[in-house]
Amino acid sequence: MGCAPSRKRSEEAESAGALVPYEGGSSPARASHSSSPSSRRSPKKKKQRRANETSPLNSTTPPELLIPLYRQALGEKQTYLGEDHPDTLYAMNALAIVLHKDSQYNEAEALYREVLEKRVAVLGNSHVDTVATMNNLASLLHKRNDGADLIPDEVRKVHLQQAETLYRACIKTCRAAHGELHVSTIHGKNNLASLLWETNRPGEAEPLFREVLASSRKAHGNEHALVLSAASNLAVFLERRGRHREAEPLFREVLASRTKVLGATHPRSLYIINVLANLYSDMADHDNAVKYSWQALEGRRSSLGVSHPVTLSSYNDYANCLHAAKRYEEAEPWYMEALVGRSRELGNSHPQTADSHYNYAQLKYELGDMTTAADNYMDAYRAYAICKGYNHPETQDALEKAERSRRRIGLDAKHSMAFDASMAMMLDQMPSPRDDDDDQGEAELPPVSPPSAAAAGGAENLAPAPDHPQEESTTPKLQGGLPPLPPQAAGGGGGGRARANTTIV
Question: What is the pTM of this model?
């Protein structure tokens, strides 16, 4: 097994953190019933369609346009039905979801907590709507990232502790109400495993990932989307723990089933192909790494276009595989394709653009072109300083390597030291970003989505039951799977392996 390269790998995540789907329970849409079986079925179908159509998570409308409508709906419910009526709580939960989608976390959290308190009082702890609200709140606490409104580390720690408590309560209730093999129980375990891994407790996370896979197989067979998501999550976990030989057969199983069901060019099939390419590169099986990486690149270029961020990530990963195989002249134009495309599509200060500068600098350094290497390390340094913070390890790593390259060609460090000082003065005027590692990881899984998760690939989220559109996940999702593993937990994007970026397919 070869040493992992210090290049930046493009971490991808399918989605992260999803809510547990439920069957049955109340719905705000009411339908009349008659004694005729056929007349009873028809209103139910209409009710389900209406619920799905009006769900804030099924809507493709931007959340900022939905928020005023949901505020108005909540106000009317409160006025005419009262604060504690089930339909009022439904409207409050729906508003919290669209606020969550719009990254207005503080208000969304306050609403979730109010809904949860009132549902516990009105419906009890074990009601499906109560449990779903618990999971909504846990998902927000687990995955929230305020961006400019920075969360201190101690507050983040409290959020994760609260999320863990809520996840465990959800699992306990779902297990008691539905059993170990119910999708809600399985989904809750996957969420908890992801959180445990993200909080550096892999020994507790692994048994849960294995339970999720075993329960999914027992309940659904081997080719169900839930099973493939569980297998992918476990494989990502093992791969990021350095257990490549254990991960490989799981990835191959997922690839075979997805290819059979979805086709070889489906984004989720291509994701697994890309994961395998990176896995083989880490195992120093360069022939397979280059083969699979090219297959992923060709598929994405055809289906997504040459300028799509995921395609640009495939350029980067294909160049990494060629680089690791010491095929330097072949790697260079692909690094340039990724760098030029990311600069154009994402901007010069985007972390993925910074990664491309870093990777290209690494290649030129190994080829002996110290001038180009130093210039690109400095470009990476500038971008990392803006998007990650002056004191972030990757920022300082890029600066150190720029200085090393300059020394190799006999230049002193005065120019870059002057820039270093001016950058520090500029950043003193800015809030320092959290020193999180690269994004979520297509673990597509978070990325195993809360692994980066954006390395390669991830797990899908289950679609909530039609009767409970209000209980749906607040994160992007694809039909039929588990939430991805956490990228940061997986350790993507640090020194010692290809630098990771997050791309959601």
Answer: 0.68
